[in-house]
Design a protein that fits this description.
With 117 residues, this protein is α+β, with helices and mostly antiparallel strands. Helix content is 19%, strand content 47%. The chain has helices spanning 8-13, 16-31, and strands at residues 34-51, 54-70, 86-95, 101-110.
Length: 117
């Protein structure tokens, strides 16, 4: 995405509501001169096929080893690990005519008990 809320990659893999949310999220980081550094681990995927072209995917993210970084200074925020470091995601994916699965809905909840470690 290269810190561009209008990037081709973002528009290719996200559609509809998910694209609007992702573009707003990226724009927020760009406007604040921030980026993310460190490691985010994704785990506990749960995939349900709704039909041959639609799927629901839920998964967790561990952001305890990631932090925001100032793009100018390179300084990273050191934030304590709390339950808010763990995020539950629920998404809807739809297969396009080209055979590529794209995210059309993406919701998240920080501190969700399912994901807290």
């Amino acid at each position: 995405m290269a810190a561009d809320p209008n990037s081709e990659a973002l528009r290719f893999y996200y559609k509809g509501e998910a694209l609007a949310g992702a573009a707003t999220w990226v724009k927020g980081y760009v406007d604040e001169g921030r980026s993310i550094t460190g490691t985010v681990r994704f785990y506990d995927p749960d995939l349900v096929m709704v039909d041959k072209d639609t799927a629901a995917l839920a998964y967790c993210a561990d952001e305890s080893k990631a932090s925001d970084k100032d793009r100018k200074t390179g300084n990273a925020d050191k934030t304590p690990v709390t339950k808010e470091s763990y995020v539950a995601y629920n998404s809807r994916l739809e297969k396009g005519e080209d055979g590529v699965w794209r995210t059309t809905v993406l919701e998240s909840e920080r501190g969700n008990a399912k994901c807290v470690r």
